[in-house]
């Protein structure tokens, strides 16, 4: 194992942290302080020992209710502070800390004060708004009556001046006139305000209800704050004149239905002036009272806003402590709480120190007892990550949480994921644009960490270091492809090709595209060294560019895919060696390596040999006739001497690897199970105590790192979890092994073909970039029109950013994700563990 270790065990991320199940026996009087101290450490995952009890039946249910009530009050204060337009902040020197009883009393006192202040403020505001509307009614309706009186007086004077000369015998007493005046005395009116949008319907309904026996006068008064809702509304002052008691009843009901506010209005002008003056005086007094109340309320809210975050954090911490205490079991004397928790071995010194400090702070005479427990339960998986490795670990965890202590794919994913992305996205210019975006994220890292980002930008910011690597590798592959926004570069000098005319080099022709016009052909002189780095720029723009790049990228994809899959199979070997699963190494790892490399490893060797030897052999022909006619190699498929015998040998061992993967392992597992059954019967005959016998048979995990690893080995090796323990089904094991074998054999073909997506997406990216450059930018430049050039550059920029930088990068990201999840990780990664979720106050800050 040491030979094949390669130093990976020295990498912190290579395997999950070693875990241990511990039992804590905590005195009841110091339980709260102890759990709070462990929450500050944040490295203990408590098991729920009261899972059979409901939330209301647990020991600290009342304390949780108290915390919920305090949290409700704090949310109420948050709403009031936000409604007042204040910001929740922290003072440089916070108020003295409160314990929970003091804080509960303080919050209750402040809530009562705020509710009283809000109630007074609402009542005063309603009274003020009502008086404002009454003042408008007195002003506008008074003008109606004043104008009506003036018109009536002028009309009456004109009628008397006209009729006196003609009717000298008319009665002089008013009582002798017809009964029209008497009927006019029975007229009534209602005055008030109504929203503008309801005015038309109000007028129509009044007309229909009174059959036209009414008269409505109205005028707009602009925006008025409604007394009921406190919102600004466009309103009109109205006066409705009616005749009769029945009409009055109808008018009042219609006003109520349309939410029209009615106000008293005296007919006597002197009383109107007196009421107007009283209302004005009352408004000034109310304004003064409201301002004083508002200043007092703002002072209270300001004090609350300074301490609100501190109080909210304290309540969240207390609630988290009591939730954790509810997971602990109480002994019969109710003096000791018993807890079980998973703890990383490396964190035990910190846990011991926290327990010592908690015992000292609570002044208890008995300290907490911490002791390891033996268990058959699988431990949780915990990886220590930092800002750089978090995003790569998240990529792996999205597929599934690693089983305890199995190899972590994130170690290689840090390099292979951005590299495979860059193979599909390779372009020097596009890589520079991506690097600029990543540099912006890194430069503003501290400022962005303090801000609340939207979901999409937060996702990009979380993967900022992955973006840096993707941009770096994209620049690298762009140099290999020799593409800068689809244009060739000459960073490493000009082309090595020359124009041959009549068998001799014409040095006067520098642009190889002009060579055919002079009757020559482009070729590489013998002895000329190849282009120093990447693709020779001579291929750009030629008819053979696409076939050449297709051939190169397709073969490169196969090479990368086979190497990547071999790496996945090697990772399974590291797992087998660590868990001491020799059976899986012999019956799975070795035949898998033989099968994959005897077929596709041979193809990779043939590709490299063809490149080095410059042969024109058709590799399609080689691989097809390797199966159709083994042992014979025709001229079209010849690569090297002894090729036929080698191909027959590779076919034979690849075919032999299939039953090797399928049959031995189930039968060996069956023999092991039969041996364990015989050993169990021997224990029963000797007469071990039941508990000791159970421990001996189950191989419980001792409280140390070695035993934890052995437990994980038992769960990992020898059949992948089938056939171990008290239940063994040979048929189930055979079916499982058959599925595993068929999946690998078919997957070896399909996974290799799947890596051709590297070629396909790289080609698509290159061709899209070329289309945007040639058909958009260069075509408009060729028009020699400044406006057309500006439009063309704008379209080119939008297409580059929208299609290539956003859509193409997302497509390449998803395809790289698939290659890692399916083609790479399915060779070794089980991903059936569960994450370590410690009790920590960091999540409640």
Automatic annotation (TrEMBL):
Membrane topology recorded in Swiss-Prot or TrEMBL: Multi-pass membrane protein
Q: What does the UniProt keyword field contain?
A: Coiled coil, Hydrogen ion transport, Ion transport, Membrane, Transmembrane, Transmembrane helix, Transport
User: Could you tell me which InterPro entries the record lists for this protein?
Assistant: V-ATPase_116kDa_su (IPR002490), V-type_ATPase_116kDa_su_euka (IPR026028)
Instruction: State a single Pfam family of this protein.
Output: V_ATPase_I
Q: Which residues cross the membrane?
A: 419-443, 464-481, 556-574, 594-612, 644-663, 787-807
Q: Which residues form a coiled coil?
A: 93-127
Record localization:
Membrane
Work out whether the entry's keyword set contains Cell inner membrane: no
Indicate yes or no for the key word Transmembrane helix. Answer: yes
Q: Name one GO cellular component term.
A: vacuolar proton-transporting V-type ATPase, V0 domain
Question: GO MF terms on file?
Answer: ATPase binding; proton-transporting ATPase activity, rotational mechanism
> Example GO biological process term?
vacuolar acidification
What family is it from?
Belongs to the V-ATPase 116 kDa subunit family.
PANTHER family per UniProt: V-TYPE PROTON ATPASE SUBUNIT A, VACUOLAR PROTON ATPASES
Instruction: Give the protein's function.
Output: Essential component of the vacuolar proton pump (V-ATPase), a multimeric enzyme that catalyzes the translocation of protons across the membranes. Required for assembly and activity of the V-ATPase.
This chain belongs to the protein called: V-type proton ATPase subunit a
